Amino acid sequence: MSTPKIPSPGKIFLSILSAKWEKFWPALLLTLEKKWGKADYLSDLIPFSQTKYYDAELGTPIFRRVLSFSNLIPLDQLVSLKQFTNQLEQLNLQNNNRIFNLDPGIITYERLVLATGKNFTHRIYLKEGIFADLTLIYTKGKWQTLPWTFPDYATHEMQQHLTNIRNIYRQQLQNK
């Protein structure tokens, strides 16, 4: 018989996509830090060209920024992360279009799990319309893609950012 045990908290991860950074940055960062603590990882802008899925809504060219935050959270708070980012997207609509796309998730030693409102075969329903997407696993010293991993998360550049965030997370847990 297994004995239930509460896992260690996870590290908040956020990917932001936009073609209109000048309209909301750095004000959005201040809002995020008020909610989740100081950003402890902040990438430069990264060109986003793996898909044209967001072009019509966000405009072009789209750039991504990857962030993590100092506060660690219980893993069961993934739903509240997504609800908060959905609210921010709605509050910042222009002409009924998002000016940014926020993809929150949680990084642990073992994985990156993103939150989504879209169902798919590999996604696990959590509650209130939010699903968990196991996007990458960390094993044998590196990130491993899965058959459904988004192409942009399969890139070496993205995985390097994730490794940097995972290293900050490891240090945080060691210092507890």
UniProtKB/TrEMBL annotation:
Name the record gives this protein: GTP-binding protein
Organism classification: Bacteria, Pseudomonadati, Thermodesulfobacteriota, Desulfovibrionia, Desulfovibrionales
Entry-linked Pfam families: DUF4416 (PF14385)
InterPro entries reported for this sequence: DUF4416 (IPR025529)
